[in-house]
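Incident log, structure service

09:12 report received: a user says their structure output differs between two submissions of the same chain.
09:20 pulled the input from the user's history:
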Amino acid sequence: MADDLNQAMQDGRAAKLAGRPVSANPHRAGSQESADWLAGYVLDEDEQNVDRPEGDEG
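09:34 re-ran on a clean worker, output below:
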């Protein structure tokens, strides 16, 4: 899996494993590098925005 990550994603993952906060993202907010770093940081977390059926929905 690590072979599929670009450098920013690898850096984000390494930061998470080192216990650094998400605010340690060194890239400019809104940049692709910042988004990639964050994607690496949360790589092992469950997706939070998942639609699930409610009540009698299918």
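09:41 both user submissions now match this output. Likely a transient worker issue. Closing.
09:42 reviewer note: The mean pLDDT is 90. Residues 7-17 form the longest helix (11 residues).
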